[in-house]
Amino acid sequence: MNLKLPTKHYSIPLPAMDCVQDFEQFARALNGEVIGKDIVQLSGGLAKGMVKKRQIQPGCCLRSWNLVFNHPVELQKCGEDPDSKRFTIVYVLTPGSCRLKSIGGHEQFSQIETRNTLMVANDVALKFDIAPHRAVQVIEISATSFWLAQQFQRAGLPLDNFLDRVNEKGNPLILNCTCPPSVINRVNMLFDHLMGVEEDYADADQLATSLILDFLHKMLNSQVPRVAGSQDAHFLKVMEAEAILQAHLQRNLPNVCAIAQQVSLSESTLKRHFKIIFGKSLYEYYLEKKMNLAKVMLLEKPLTVYQTASMLGYEKVSNFIGIFKKHHGYSPGSMKKKGFMNQ
Question: Is 10-221's fold the same as 233-338's?
Fold first, then answer.
């Protein structure tokens, strides 16, 4: 009989990006070594690989991870002073290795099949579960609200809408969206620039800035729901339900009752609060995201209509074509042929 030995679980605090002491303490916790103040080198024991940080400009810095852990690890980010008005965007390149465990003290449902972008204010506490023996590749970009406001002004983006969001009292900023292939490609390029033998920092800085602005512009233009107060448990539960919808864009969606059970809400409560926050029903929201993903896949990947339908979980391509045409106003075949994105 084979006996499975218990595996030790480690809990490691995430260091603040702008604190040298936290970075050194983080290196010691992982049995690593700090090289030149900006790199943690890990050569065994708890993990192998490295973590790099870089100051892009005053008010904006980033950190890249390329590690393999030998044991399960929980990474903890404590909430900081809300008056600091600093925000962090997290890109996980290897979603199967990193699970968002909790946000603001609330347990999360976390999809592992999709690559998502998460932006949170630094006063929001986070916990990530890291799987052992799998590559962990992550990029974090941290910026102050002042730096973001400067970039918004230079790019001609709607600054007032952004400042309204970040300056809300008692309402932590939490934004989340699925990365389209074009963003994934740029994140991968940024990772290569940062972790390569010959770092190309000029291109890395430009890529990081463009990713931040594109993400925020998309979220503001898509009328992201305003975050309810941190005491509103319904908001976080609805965000968990929304994550389930995102995770099933390439699969059949569970029924609403099953989703409600997963997030510990009644079906009627989930439907009501989802409609309040997103302005549409769960299925309407899901179908919109699914058809938008279909559009991106057809235009950015060498896929046929049949292949796309199959990848999105449709057994009959005719059903997919009918729903796509009803949603977008034209068939996937005609769009693929003409290669347009906006009609």
Answer: no
